[in-house]
């Protein structure tokens, strides 16, 4: 799993990982390799599943904020 806010960096890392695996006679399986955003939809659904957990962001509306009842983040 590679996490970064810049998609360009993620794609560079994917190339590096693919090259490293190729040296060992392995490859990334395209059907199981997906680049996605955790909030907005690039293709398919946002986020991903990892070890049984759904990893994604949810949009916050005008009446909801990221702060708790004390005003802390």
Structure in a nutshell:
With 73 residues, the protein is of the alpha+beta class. The chain folds into two domains: 1-33, no CATH class; 36-73, no CATH class. It has one helix at 7-23, and strands spanning 48-50, 53-55.
Structure description:
This protein has one helix and two strands, in the order αββ. It has one helix at 7-23, and strands spanning 48-50, 53-55. Strand 1 and strand 2 (53-55) form a beta hairpin. The mean pLDDT is 81.
SSE map:
Elements: H1 7-23, E1 48-50, E2 53-55
Antiparallel strand pairs: 1-2
Q: How many domains, as an integer?
A: 2
Mean pLDDT figure: 81
> Biggest sheet: strands, sense, closure?
2 strands, antiparallel
Beta-strand content estimate: 5-15%
Rg from alpha-carbon coordinates: 17 Å
Structural class: alpha+beta
- Uncertain stretches of 5 or more adjacent residues: none
- Enumerate the strands of the largest sheet in spatial order, edge to edge or round the barrel: 1-2
Number of strands: 2
Q: Order of helices and strands, N to C?
A: HEE
Question: With helices defined by DSSP (H or I, 4 residues minimum), what is the helix count?
Answer: 1
The helical percent reads 10-25%
Distance between the termini: 27 Å
The global form is: elongated
């Amino acid at each position: 799993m590679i996490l970064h806010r810049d998609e360009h960096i993620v794609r560079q890392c994917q190339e590096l990982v693919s090259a490293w695996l190729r040296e060992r006679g392995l490859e990334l399986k395209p059907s199981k390799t997906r680049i996605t955003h955790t909030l907005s939809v690039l293709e398919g659904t946002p986020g991903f599943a990892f070890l049984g957990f759904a990893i994604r962001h949810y949009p916050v509306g005008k009446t909801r904020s990221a702060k708790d009842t004390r005003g802390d983040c």
